[in-house]
Amino acid sequence: MRSDCGQPAPAGSATTGFDDLPGVSAAVAASAAATAFAGVSTTAPTQRRRWLEAVAEALHSRAELLVALAEEETGLGEVRLRQELTDAAANARYYAAVGEGGGWLRAQAQRRTGGSAADLRKAHLSIGPVAVFGASNFPFKFGVFGHDTCAAVAAGCSVVVKAHPAHPRLSRAIAGTVTAALDAAGAPAGTFGLIEGFTEGLALVQLPEIAAVAFTGSQSGGMALVDAVRARPLPIPVFAEMGTVNPVVVTPGAAHSIEPIAAGFVESFTRGGGQFCTKPGLLLVPRGCGAAAAIAAALSSRDGVRLLTAGISDAFRAGVGDLVAAGAEVLATGGPADGEHVVRPVALSVSPDVLRQGSRLLQECFGPVGLVAEYGHFAEVGEILSRMQPALAGSVFSADGADPDVSSVVAQLAGRTGRVVVNDWPTGVACVDAMHHGGPWPATSRPDATSVGADALARFTRPVAFQNVPDEALPPALQDANPWRLVRYDQEGRPW
Amino acid sequence: MRSDCGQPAPAGSATTGFDDLPGVSAAVAASAAATAFAGVSTTAPTQRRRWLEAVAEALHSRAELLVALAEEETGLGEVRLRQELTDAAANARYYAAVGEGGGWLRAQAQRRTGGSAADLRKAHLSIGPVAVFGASNFPFKFGVFGHDTCAAVAAGCSVVVKAHPAHPRLSRAIAGTVTAALDAAGAPAGTFGLIEGFTEGLALVQLPEIAAVAFTGSQSGGMALVDAVRARPLPIPVFAEMGTVNPVVVTPGAAHSIEPIAAGFVESFTRGGGQFCTKPGLLLVPRGCGAAAAIAAALSSRDGVRLLTAGISDAFRAGVGDLVAAGAEVLATGGPADGEHVVRPVALSVSPDVLRQGSRLLQECFGPVGLVAEYGHFAEVGEILSRMQPALAGSVFSADGADPDVSSVVAQLAGRTGRVVVNDWPTGVACVDAMHHGGPWPATSRPDATSVGADALARFTRPVAFQNVPDEALPPALQDANPWRLVRYDQEGRPW
User: Under an 8 A CB cutoff, do B411 and A463 touch?
Assistant: First the structure.
């Protein structure tokens, strides 16, 4: 951009087309989203793909400003944030393509086969305006225009996002970027809206226009929304993805290679300040394998970590205190902890006996803390896992080659988590079709739902069957002419 | 069967292998179901198909006794009950085949494509022991061995059924039949269990072994289970399918053929004593089309109807009284109402103005009552529909040929119901792949779920992703050798 006076052009100048967009009231945003919904849901998925791709483009074109704002408000570091913006734009393109593919509509027909049989067609239609509550820890990927927003628009829904208070300026800047790009791409006004503040957020989920809620964050935040929705005259689904203690088991056969595992554990529970919902929360190792010393050594070289907000760093210090009060002992710390919201990463050791009794030890502490427990007999692993709350993910580290203990741990984790990993850390979630980012409560409020991957669109749909409905009155997904060019089959498996 | 003394052999004789099976305690049944689950879920779907088919066979072989018991306890009539048993056995075979097909597992792979990419595989695994609460109105199809039980077993889950108090002897007889057939077919002990009584039912859904709840019945019953499950330390999904007022719209263009519509309306809201969750509850007709006289004429030839229980007939009389108190007027009645639990079918007329105000008018009254409202301007239809609670199903009757009003009503009904029907009644639900028997609350507690059709299995599954898990530790559905012979694809759409 040309700027004769040598100053960078202000954000929101006419030449960029971007204005930071402050939030409106919940009522105004929901009303606009409801008006937009008819247009969004009946627009061909191919066109909605273009809207999302336009936003991805716009995020890139405004990356300098957005990353700088994110760094100011989160302290997550420019390198990480630049990558996260790039990933978020790629995810938008991914959901756009999934939406265009149309598999999420699950269109099918039971075509008339005789005089008396009905013509029955079924599709998962767009559910309505969606309220999205993003997370603090991924301001781009799980923020104003993260997985939930993209999946909802791809599934034909309008969206109202509640800005996270940890990054209000970034939220406004992204909202402005999204709105301008959607407008320019021809999306209906109201396809996307932003609101701000706790009170407006609670008001939003009570409004009759809102048809579903998606949330990423803490258990207390998610359950507050679940409770708020229960008070509605007509309840709606709440898809809350919440924090859990993700267990990692080192089998006896893997004990000989504990050093790289210990280093990986420290790296994983401190990455992003330990502010990942998939960080390893509890490492179960064979007694006497040297894990404690290896973890202490790895942690000693770690610096203090700046957390997202003063509230989160306060909660972290209190949470570590609670863990110690519940019977955990400090194994090692990194440091120092100088500066605003900066804390020392810490590894805690805990005995299996204490774990079996102390429920506080088995609840998430957001931030750079990891628990380590040494088991004597391998059967203790099963007992401990059965005491833990279900989780988003869990891992097993095994011996090279065949390890007789892997299958039993995989089966146990499969019964209690949404994703089971072998010989790697659960930390981080790839945005691909076969991903499942979810799990039984308290990992999520809806154990069948994922907030990442192709199936993320399913949350924002509702199946409807059409019986003997004339073609012109059917939704496009079910019309004979197949105007959306979906891959569809009838009851005999014939393309239809 | 030979019986020297000329008496029919008692049910449960050694030669039949059937014993009536009284319920056990919730704790005993849940514990047995939990023990059985490991075996049920890892048994090949092909084998589970044989279990369900064996039960279907056993239902037929004991049909005389079961139908006689059902008639004694429900008064639904031998013809209807014999057909319902036949349908229930056919449904068991249907779910058995759907289970064997394996599409419900939704197995998919994101196979390793480079050095750093993960091998990610995902399937919907069997969720665990399922608690089933059957309905009073379909003692076979939605009873002890109805849609929910069959779908759960087909999806690899063990089941504990709570017997409906309206038909306790039939429930025990079916339970004995199911248990003997499953045993003989080699299913693990505990695959199926029966409990009895309100207290045991509430206890059942609180037990840690239970992983999901399926219910068919009233709003109050369904919501009581939803509330009971909320009190669990670890919540689980409750799939409650509840009663609704299903609207039927007659367009202005269809007014000239009101007589057959009126006759069909009366036939539909009195069928099975009006005890169908899909009965038409409200008929919206153009003013002055003669619907009132035609309905009165059709109803005058109807006899009194025996309802399922004294409680239901009392509730029906009270419900009709409430409707009249809320502003409805008696348009016509059938009769007489002599005999135990016998009531007069009744049509009530109500003005659109009263409908717009009276919420009581828009809640289900179980039994043979139908509301009729005459609209002046067609726009009133939209206003009334928007005031109603969402419903399981809705219909439109239209003019022959193109009718300009059909599309708008279909679109409105699609936004508020689970199934939209044109030129037929919503009453009755075919058990086919493309069926959706569900809808937004209060039709169901989970608007994405159906209790009939192939997707009914999805309720009893939970997705899990497996990342870099060695083949021998994967569940059969995801192993390279594909031991369950599922149709599976990888990320490129290649068979896998």
Answer: no
Separation CA B446–CA B142 (nearest Å):
18
Domains and CATH numbers, chain B: 26-243+446-461 (3.40.605.10), 246-422 (3.40.309.10)
- B428-438, pLDDT tens digit by residue? 999 999 999 99
pLDDT category at B218 given cuts 50, 70, 90 is: very high
Compute the nearest-CA separation of A273 from chain B (Å).
24
DSSP state of B339: S
Contact B154, B99 (CB under 8 A): yes
* CA-to-CA separations, B70 to B98, B161, B171, in angstroms, rounded: 28, 17, 9
pTM: 0.94
Nearest CA in chain B to A449: B463
What is the DSSP secondary-structure string of B156-178? T--EEEEPPTTSHHHHHHHHHHH
Distance CA A134, CA B325 (A): 48
- Helices A168-185 and A63-74 cross at an angle (nearest 10°) of 160
Number of other residues whose CB lies within 10 A of the CB of residue A378: 17
Among A121, A236, A407, whose Cβ lies nearest the Cβ of B472?
Answer: A407
Provide, as residue numbers in chain B, all residues whose Cβ is less than 8 Å from the Cβ of A239. Answer: none
The closest alpha carbon to B440, from B458, B460, B422, B415, belongs to B415
For residue B149, give the amino acid letter.
T
Closest-CA residue of B relative to A120 is B434
Least Cα separation, residue B447 to chain A (angstroms)? 6
Is B78 catalytic? The answer is: no
The tens digit of pLDDT for each residue in B348-389 reads: 999 999 998 877 788 899 999 999 999 999 999 999 999 899
For residue A418, the chain B residues in CB contact (below 8 A) are 463-465
Q: Which of residues 266-325 of A touch B (CB under 8 A)?
A: none
In this structure, of A198-212, A338-352, B112-126, the range with the lowest mean pLDDT score is B112-126
For the stretch A133-167, pLDDT in tens is 999 999 999 999 999 999 999 999 999 999 999 99
